Amino acid sequence: MEKNKPKIFITRMLPERGLNLLFQNFGRENVKIYLGETPIPYEELLKEVLGMDALLCLLTDKIDEKVMELAGPQLKIIANYAVGFDNIDIAEATKRKIVVTNTPGVLTETTADLAWALLMASARRLGEGERLVRASQWAGWNPTLLLGVDIYGKTLGIFGMGRIGQAVARRAKGFNMRILYYDIQEQSLPKDLEATKVDKDTLLKESDFITIHCPLTRSTYHAFGLEEFKKMKRTACIINTSRGPVIDEEALVQALNKGLIFSAGLDVFEKEPEIHPDLLNCPNAILIPHLGSASVETRSRMAEIAAQNIIARLNGQIPPNTVNPEAL
Ligand code: DGY
User: Fold this and answer.
1) Which of 234, 253, 272, 323 has the fewest CB atoms found within 10 Å of its own CB?
2) Of all protein residues, whose CA lies closest to atom 2 belonging to ligand 1?
3) Ligand 1 pocket, mutate which of 60, 106, 107 (most atoms under 8 A from CB)
4) Model-level pTM greater than 0.85?
5) Which residues contact 24 (CB under 8 A, 6 or more apart)?
6) Residue 272: which domain range?
7) Strand 178-182 and strand 155-159: pairing?
8) How far is residue 26's CA from residue 8's CA, in Å, rounded to a whole number?
9) Using CA positions, which residue lies closest to atom 4 of ligand 1?
10) How many Cβ atoms from other residues are within 10 Å of residue 140's Cβ?
11) CA 67 / ligand 1 centre spacing (Å)
12) Does residue 39's CB lie within 6 angstroms of at least one atom of ligand 1?
């Protein structure tokens, strides 16, 4: 690494498009990448971050006070390769005047597509069907085999009506659905979305499908527990593509096993990559490994945006996706 040139540490190999931008702007020799196949161990991160001006990290990296302290006072930006940033201690970063950025916008449609894939798969029991076929246990067409619930014309409840929630709602129009949403923030929605804001209880009681699109905060932690599942329709499906801890997994297992709800489609889990062992045994849960933004195009755009945020900050500008402007 060259003296006096800004130094950047990246906690995992990322798509070329983003890396090349950083190489062009700061020189290949000043960009260090952790090349492991799994997330960088915390202890290693603490060593690698020393002396860096920018840290490009993933949602799997816990960026706390210690990481910031060991990096040193020259650390100017933590660029998260995700829209969610609950892995970063924002208050601590702000106190230290470290700008934190995320990658909003580019993954909205990709994540909405996946929420719909999960919604349809859990409504129509695709996981069970696939397992049956692969186990060579399908005995042929049967009038009562794996009956699911209809989607068309039903009520969709959206928990968190930000960018992704709205993209999910747009898709629901093609299914002639009634759209309800709950959000603690005032959202100005396009009129043609025809979505109705309701309180949480109404959302729980009236929705046939509930899809979660809120960030993980103190107030959304375990927003869905046993009390909530009891209020839902016995035929309802719950979908989560936001953050695992918004659902109390223990309570969800009970709800699925006791038939309090029909099914669940989960992309995210409380303690990723661990999954509640009893959830693995619930046939009416579709479980996939945090794939919300996982398309070739979107992951590449996310890398580009994270790199652009770093370039802006290290050139003395305000990065376009700053989440803590108070740090500046
Ligand atoms: C995000 O960007 O927060 C997503 O969870 C990544 O897929």
Assistant:
1) 234
2) 82
3) 107
4) yes
5) none
6) 108-287
7) parallel
8) 9
9) 82
10) 5
11) 21
12) no
**245 and 99 both lie in a single domain:** no
In a domain, 1, yes or no: no
Note whether 157 and 244 are same-domain residues. Answer: yes
* 24 touches 51 (CB < 8 A): no
Q: What is the pLDDT along the chain (328 residues), one digit of tens a residue?
A: 666 789 999 999 999 999 999 999 999 999 999 999 999 999 999 999 999 999 999 999 999 999 999 999 999 999 999 999 999 999 999 999 999 999 999 999 999 999 999 999 999 999 999 999 999 999 999 999 999 999 999 999 999 999 999 999 999 999 999 999 999 999 899 989 999 999 999 999 999 999 999 999 999 999 999 999 999 999 999 999 999 999 999 999 999 999 999 999 999 999 999 999 999 999 999 999 999 999 999 999 999 999 999 999 999 999 999 999 999 9
Q: Is 84 in the pocket of ligand 1 (CB under 6 A)?
A: yes
Whether residues 99 and 166 fall in one domain = no
Q: Does residue 86 sit within a domain?
A: yes
Same domain, 54 and 180: no
CA distance 50 to 163: 36
Of 124, 163, 213, 243, the catalytic one is 243
140 backbone dihedrals φ, ψ, rounded to 5°: 110, 170
Residue among 111, 44, 126, 58 nearest 87 (CA): 58
Task: Determine whether 272 is an active site residue.
Answer: yes
Residue 188 CB coordination number (10 Å): 5
Is residue 322 helix, strand or coil?
strand
- State whether the beta carbon of 244 lies less than 6 angstroms from ligand 1: no
Q: Within this chain, do residues 315 and 212 fall inside the same structural domain, yes or no?
A: no
Per the annotation, the verdict on 234 as an active-site residue is no
Q: Closest ligand 1 atom, CA of 241?
A: 5
Question: Is 290 annotated in the active site?
Answer: yes
Give the count of domains, the chain: 2
Q: What is the atom index within ligand 1 of the atom nearest the CA of 290?
A: 7
Q: Are 215 and 160 in contact (CB under 8 A)?
A: yes
